[in-house]
Amino acid sequence: MLKLLLTGANGQVGFELRRSLAVLGDVLAVDQAQCDLSNPAAIRQLVQNYRPNVIVNPAAYTAVDQAESNPLVASAVNADAVQVLGEEAQKIGALVVHYSTDYVFDGRKDGAYTELDPTNPQSVYGATKLAGELALQATGARHLILRTSWVVGAHGGNFAKTMIRLAAQRHQLSIVADQFGVPTSAALLADITAHLVREHQTSGGEGFTYGTYHAVAGGVTNWHEYACYVIERARAAGRPVLVAPDAILPITTADYPTPAQRPANSRLATAKLQQTFGLHLPHWRSGVDHILDQIL
Ligand SMILES: NC(=O)C1=CN([C@@H]2O[C@H](COP(=O)(O)OP(=O)(O)OC[C@H]3O[C@@H](n4cnc5c(N)ncnc54)[C@H](OP(=O)(O)O)[C@@H]3O)[C@@H](O)[C@H]2O)C=CC1
Ligand SMILES: Cc1cn([C@H]2C[C@H](O)[C@@H](COP(=O)(O)OP(=O)(O)O[C@H]3O[C@@H](C)C(=O)[C@@H](O)[C@H]3O)O2)c(=O)[nH]c1=O
Ligand SMILES: [Mg+2]
Fold this sequence. Notes:
Pfam families: RmlD_sub_bind. Its EC number is 1.1.1.133. By secondary structure, this protein is of the alpha/beta class. Helix content is about 40%, strand content about 15%. It contains 10 helices and 12 strands.
């Protein structure tokens, strides 16, 4: 039977992976208490004891603004730990499935980024995630890197939940309208992952195309439009909403200074993933609707 090691089991994506990976085999799901990823020795011991066929690593340091003042911790989790997982996987021939981000790009491209576009992170978070990608590649472990964006799940913290909370507390909200991207549900990422691991298992690795894939939902939006969508759904569901629709103000990035710089264009082209694995990627609204049906 397939043995899968899952990190970050209580994060947004990790929580959904516990569900989606279960049909594939025996899943050992660990959180920070069971294995602190900033401790390389603990990682090595875990992998050597369990000897998984597949390591799925959604754990990450994802506090984008805090990473600017915490680069060492961000780097330990987002880069060094990924290298150690890769080294241990390489020794035992395990497949590593890892996740990365739109924030590896600078956002200045016109149109969606492909897997071949040059990276140029503008934040510590983005730089450490890119370092993790490169470190994993350098280990020579068989791997998949799924770059995604604007992850939203029923379990864990995200922008949609922040908007529902703020809408109940304030009469006016100001939300940036000049950063474009795609909200992608944790459940969709977990389902894609299970499909890819299954394909890998079925192929026995023969002719399997390892490497980097962009994995996001369909469509495109901006943070302001996304906030309006979520808040109107909350209002319609009878949740407490203080803010009137015309009091959700679109602002520019310059109007909302943050420690970390975010890309203006976070769009990721998914043709490679769709064509290689014959997958359909549903519109972002269907993923967000499903989450709102759970939390509202
Ligand atoms: N969230 C997003 O918008 C996006 C995420 N991604 C990437 O997708 C992947 C999954 O993200 P998502 O599920 O949203 O992330 P979350 O922040 O929801 O979950 C990350 C998990 O990693 C765990 N973790 C953090 N530090 C450590 C550590 N030192 N040791 C062990 N575990 C640790 C956290 O545990 P604890 O809660 O205990 O700290 C948490 O459970 C990540 O690789 C992320 O970079 C890509 C694009 C967008
Ligand atoms: C709360 C708030 C945020 N914003 C802006 C700030 C920012 O530009 C945008 C989103 O804010 P957040 O802090 O939720 O987003 P952020 O944490 O940057 O989200 C990112 O997380 C990492 C992990 C990723 O990998 C990215 O794909 C992306 O999802 O909304 C407002 O304009 N008004 C507000 O009231
Ligand atoms: Mg955030």
